[in-house]
Specification:
Chain A: One of its GO terms (biological process) is iron-sulfur cluster assembly. The complex is a heterodimer of chains A (366) and B (608). With 366 residues, chain A is mainly beta. Chain A has one domain: Methylamine Dehydrogenase, Chain H, CATH 2.130.10. Chain A has one helix at residues 62-65; strands at residues 7-15, 22-27, 33-38, 43-48, 66-72, 80-85, 91-96, 101-106, 122-128, 135-140, 146-151, 156-162, 166-173, 180-185, 192-196, 201-206, 212-218, 225-230, 236-241, 246-253, 256-263, 270-276, 285-293, 298-307, 316-325, 334-339, 348-353, 358-365. In chain A, a hairpin with an 8-residue loop joins strand 24 and strand 25 (316-325). Chain B starts with 41 loop residues before the first strand and ends in an 18-residue tail after the last helix. The chains are: A mainly beta (366), B alpha/beta (608). Chains A and B meet through strand 9, strand 13 and strand 17 of A and helix 13, helix 14 and helix 15 of B.
Chain lengths: 366, 608
Amino acid sequence: MEQDMTAHIRLVAQLEGHDDRAWHVAWNPKRPILASCSTDKTVRMYHYSSNLRKEHGGDEDGEQMFVHSTTIPTGHAKTVRTIAWSPSGKTLATASFDSNIGIWAQDEDDGEVDLAGGGAEWECMSLLEGHETECKSVAYSAGGNLLASCSRDKTVWVWEVHPDYDFECMGVLMEHSQDVKCVAWHPTEEILASASYDDTIKLYLDDPSEDWYCFATLSGHESTVWSLAFSPDGRFLASSSDDLTVRIWERVQEHKWECVEVLEGHERSIYSVSWGRGQRTREGSLGWLASTGGDGLVLIWELTIASPAAGGNKSTLAKKLLARLPSAHDVADVNSIAWCPREGYNDTFATAGDDGIVKVWKVEFD
Amino acid sequence: MAFSGALTLTDLNDFITPSQACIKPVEQTNRPEEKDPGAASTQIQVDSSGSYYEVASDGAKQAGRKLETAQISLNDCLACSGCITSAESVLITLQSHTEVLNFLNSNPPRSFPAHKVPVLSISPQSLASLAASVSSSSSHPVDLSDILHRVRVFCKEVLGFEHVFDTTFARHIALLEHAREFQERKRGQGKLPMLASACPGWICYAEKTHAEMLPFISQTKSPQQVMGTLVKQWMGGKWGKKPDQIYHVTVMPCYDKKLEASRQDFYNEQYATRDVDCVITTGELELLMCEKNWDLSMAVGGEKRARGASPVPRRAPPAVPTPGPGDGDDEIEIELPELIAHPGTSSGSYLQSVISMAGDASSCGLAVRTVRGADYEEHTVADRASGAVLLRGAKCYGFRNLQNVVRKVGRDAGVQVGRGAAGRIAAVRARGRARKTGADGAALSADRGYDYVEVMACPGGCVNGGGQLRPPIQNTDAEGYPRDWARNGVKLDEEGEASAPGPKANWGSKEWTKKVEEAYWGGLPTPPPTPPNAEPGELNGRSLRPSEYADRLATRILAELCSPAPVMAPTAGWCSTMDDAAEERRRKFFRTQYRAVESEVVGLAVKW
């Protein structure tokens, strides 16, 4: 197994401003905006300029490239735990411990909407209620027509996005026996995954003639599953857990997923994983997987298919630890990690920590 | 969440589960005496019998004081928005089939003054569940009247009930009052859309999480509670019994009916008794029959008489109360119209009762649009000539659809949906609304809000209630059932389900619900357009159709209970307006009210 690290992680920006724990970071998929949320009930947005791409110019002034553009004082009564951008980049969803989900957008009639997220004010266009207790996670489907949320009330809800910020509840899934920590959508199909304190991952589909239903339960983690990330090609799913492992699950059949790889290296709960395309794409490359958690450690793995699946058998993956960054937020826990999904930023990711700080990083090869 | 956990017993994924934390605070009634601040406190010890004792922590010699065991009563559960750590056990111990048996065993003989008249009322959905279950395991299909007859014989001869009724006549009254209430609201006395109130799960949920919906919810009592009024007030009057001298048991398809029966509104302070003393589910009735070795699939004598008979009793109950001479032995045998079929839905036909009033069938057309599955349908009554929409209603079952109705009603009515925290997001923009107002008139009327929504918490409605019988076990061996399934054109997957998981996983329940639905309508797969039982009955020497007979009897009961002054005209109907005092009594007997339950579910401080 290759473990020799060939890359290092460089701090690009350190963004302070939250008055309390920063829980989550989300890159706008279409516009140069990075958003973060916090126990302080606000969402902060930062605009970044494209000269970030000037590989060897102005890098020293990295911090200057991220400019705070606006703060939404959401009005949520409790912590904003997770934020999610719609694929169009026009709408932001906030999942709060007050059990509600806020849907935010800029009123295009009210004035110029600039790329930076400044300009017209971000307004709460809709409020999705239904969860009984803390809402933990929210996610838009790839097509942007569905929104999923999950909560400590053990339920996963699927909402259909209608015009004019109207939402219809399509399903309330009560499959988990405990707190549901995370929901994630498949990158191309309408497959929903959820991760729970009950140590399992559940996968759901819509039966057009009936309701949403759970078609698979992935067991293997020995403790809480905190976070989920599909591979960019949709053939794999990564899950991170309190059992200090990241597991990689492969879609071996239409409705069947099996664990093909276990990544280790963390010493505390792994709170967050993100699976990006990575940069040095080569034959069989699945992209880069970033993980972080209670130990403050960031690990970047490059995953490659060593021998592809055949006849319903699992693939064999090759894993290579590209880079390792301890104490990313000093002694603070790191709650969230996210690759920038925009073209040309495949080497850039952001983290949010208990220190209330959001940091932007870049993977650079030695 | 607010519904009892029993609902989750089926495989369907649209039920509501109980939430995790019971927030009922433990009230310490025996507080320790004043003590020095900072002094050693006391400890709680448990002795071998399981009792709790408070003792000084330094192991003082004084005898520990016995502590009261913390108890959760049904009323606590009603008042608690967090729902119920072990809702089922609480419910089942307080209102269970063993409770019924305990009562019957301890009920003194009729000659004793302390004797209570045991009365049992069974819902048609429960009868349908029993009928479907019996039919599936025997070669002779049975209908609801067979089942009612067998249940009656069992309850009277084996258990010792003195009167057994079905609740369809009570439902008939509920539908009359319900229609009257809808007319009131149409006239501006109250808000529209009106939302059905017969589902206690929905009521519980609305009171706890959607207080803004309460003004829309029909205040008419549910059939169960109308039956409670009939039994304890009207029949009690006829029998010369006070409400606390009657023990009223209902058999319901739903656990949450237990919660409904124990609402404060249905408690008679004067006599310290409830209109319905104990609610058992269909499953618990089956359990009772099991324990007493009663085989419901066996026919009992007199059944065919019941089958061919008119639902209208030959003898109408006497108009004047004639209390017995004191020994209570010769109660009047009151017969109510039985198994009145109300066309519409198997959950009580509430929407249909409103639709049938909307306009003359000859000039109006009804359009039904399926929004998503059979559990969410829109019914629009429009004038055929002008196309004008006279009524827009919806049938909406299951938790998911209920969410959407709450959102839609809130939006259309312009009320803020939701609980505390929601209000703090000051300005949720109403763009959608603003845009729609600008649309042209035709589009507006097509999208006009509902006038009425029949809301039920269970997917499939009451025939699929949480208290209904489980479907018979589907054997994979060649014996018995597979033949039945195959006959229905249903292919069974011979391969292991694990390798091909899919929507088949919850197929069994839905298929079973369909069978119960069929049994409910007497073997017809869909509700008949008109009541099938159109045999004439007799009242005051005149021949009447069953529903007319039921209308007349209902009006008479109204007059007897409310004693209007002046006396109601013989031609008066249920909707006639009486004097103020009598109308006040009508409200007391046939309406109820709802109140928001303040929820401050904090839970444990959750950090993650």
